Amino acid sequence: MPAVARLFLATAILLTQTCRPQPATAEDVTLTLADGLDTSAGAQIEHLVSSWSQPIRDSPGRTATARFRELPGGSDTMRAALAAQAQDARDDPAECNDVVMLDVVWTAEFAESGYITPLDAADFDLTRYLPQALATGRYKGRQWAIPFRTDVGLLYYRKDLLDKLGRPVPRSWAELADTARAVKEQLGVGGYVGQHALYEGFTVNAMEALGRAHPLLSPDGRGVRLDPEAAARAFDWPVRGLAEGWIPASAVDAGEEAAIAMFKSGEVAFMRNWPYAQRRLESARADLPGEYGVAPLPGASVLGGWNLAVSSCSRHPEEARALIRHLTAKPQQEHVRDKAGFAPSLTELYRSPNLNQYTAAIRPGLSNSITRPVTPRYADLTRAVQQRLRPALTTGEVVNAMRLLHTDLLAIVAKGP
Ligand code: GLC
């Protein structure tokens, strides 16, 4: 081979070698998993995340681990933070959250915005998850997120007070209103607290009061279904409760934690809350003012819960998927149930004949749950529900509030997906 040709070949080989993509780094990989405040008993979620490690495939000696990035605030604040971080990560990879914990209502928005990447069903055994929970991670025919924990509303009640009145655990909102009024009138104790503070919990509680009969949108999120007059009648009981005093005035500002505090201190006989509240009550059992029980809500529960998704910005999607598989595997899900005090996402953990009262109460809530509207404009929708309906709790102008909400919903739907 002539010298010039040899030189040309050598340069070409050298160039190919230099330009061939090299492994990102020879170091270990630390994934970031972003979640909201770890409200589990004893920061168990952080523990589960930071105790994970796994060898990196085809990279002898390299290991993937994960760090827990805890975002402050309630779910509305957390959504805004995650969206901002996803946008920042487009310019600054250091901002990337490889794995994100998403409220079940965010899938559509995060998928449409390109913040998360669709999952290959073959990477997960999708048959193991609660079907209702799994469906919340689906959007436009693809699976975007895997259920980590589920949530249904439960009714916590003071057994001793019901015994005194000789009344059963209420089975409808009307019966709950009736018993809560009797508790107030006959025993001088407040009747009920839910989540009526200005945040996503308000939307959940409002939709539960409206019930399955009064949906806001059509199932595909493209049409408005709200009937203002009929919906106003269904929303009447919390308004009356506040006006008549069997819902204490302070309950208007209660979120999940404040509701637990009110129930614990004996201010109310009934509390609507998520399953995690049971762990809180259990650990304070000795100080509680009386015996308590847990039952399904007296109406359909809104389906809550949190799903894990892989961010589009992640440079380690394979490890990110492995972390999700790990966190949703049976031993970790048992830990979620037994140590963290959350409702797990695997069907088999609800099958045992020896379920305790609390896990047994979750089951009917799941099968009878209402799904919040599936739309990438969910943030606009929930803001409208909160801003229109919450003031009506105290002004009593519910029909007008529902009409205004109806107009808002039409505008939201008109913007398209
Ligand atoms: C719980 C639910 C979630 C819901 C939120 C409202 O965390 O799991 O779905 O949006 O409460 O505050």
Automatic annotation (TrEMBL):
Highest rank taxon of the organism: Bacteria
Record bears the keyword Ribonucleoprotein: no
Keyword tags: Signal, Transport
InterPro entries with a match to the protein in the record: Bact_solute-bd_prot1, SBP
PANTHER family, per the entry: ABC TRANSPORTER PERIPLASMIC-BINDING PROTEIN YCJN-RELATED, ARABINOSE-BINDING PROTEIN-RELATED
Family the entry assigns: Belongs to the bacterial solute-binding protein 1 family.
Protein name: Extracellular solute-binding protein
Organism annotation: Nonomuraea typhae
